[in-house]
Design goal:
The protein has about 80 residues and is mainly alpha-helical. The protein has 5 helices and no strands. It has one domain.
């Protein structure tokens, strides 16, 4: 299950589809790996965590499937398309 998650969530991030969900799942996986597997690799996992937290807060941006489908409500263009 962890392997399937590690292979599918980056594809979702790359395509910009369900970005916040994929970032949340990968952040939780990173925390589990940091705590239980490699407790001294905080420098690498810290960079991953900051990047994933940024994606969770701001979303994928204008060039993503979330934006094209109008599901990313954090962007003004997506909000305008939902109101129409």
């Amino acid at each position: 299950m962890a392997t399937a998650t590690e292979l599918t969530m980056p594809l979702l991030l790359w395509s910009g589809f369900l970005t916040r969900f994929a970032a949340t799942v990968l952040l939780l996986m990173t925390l589990v790996i940091e705590i239980f597997v490699f407790p001294n690799a905080f420098d690498t996992h810290g960079v991953w965590a900051v990047t994933l937290l940024y994606l969770m807060k701001y979303g994928a941006g204008r060039f993503s499937l979330d934006y094209a489908l109008g599901t990313d409500c954090s962007l003004p263009g997506a909000l305008r398309r939902r109101e129409q």
